[in-house]
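Q: What does the predicted 3D structure of Helix-turn-helix transcriptional regulator look like?
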Amino acid sequence: MEIQLLIGWNVRSLRVAKGLSQDDLALAADIERAYVGHLERGKKNPTATTLAKLAGALECHLTELFKDPPEEASLPPPLKGGRRSQIQPRRG
């Protein structure tokens, strides 16, 4: 598996296992939500600094982002609820 795809697979697997949305992870890692999506699809090549931020936000060791998935593993399904709205409704 290509390294960018491997990192993306692991980021998504760890994120979903923790019940985090892409927005949640982006906020915790201080990166853009769109970047998380691109990263998970293997479209970005993250820097060491970004990898460290992601590992911290996912509460895992940096090496977890480089582990080969089990042969029978498949990507986790998307979280229910999809993308969260950034706009909060006005109250009263």
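A (community wiki): The structure tokens above were generated from the sequence. The longest helix spans residues 3-17. Helices lie at 3-17, 22-29, 33-40, 48-57.
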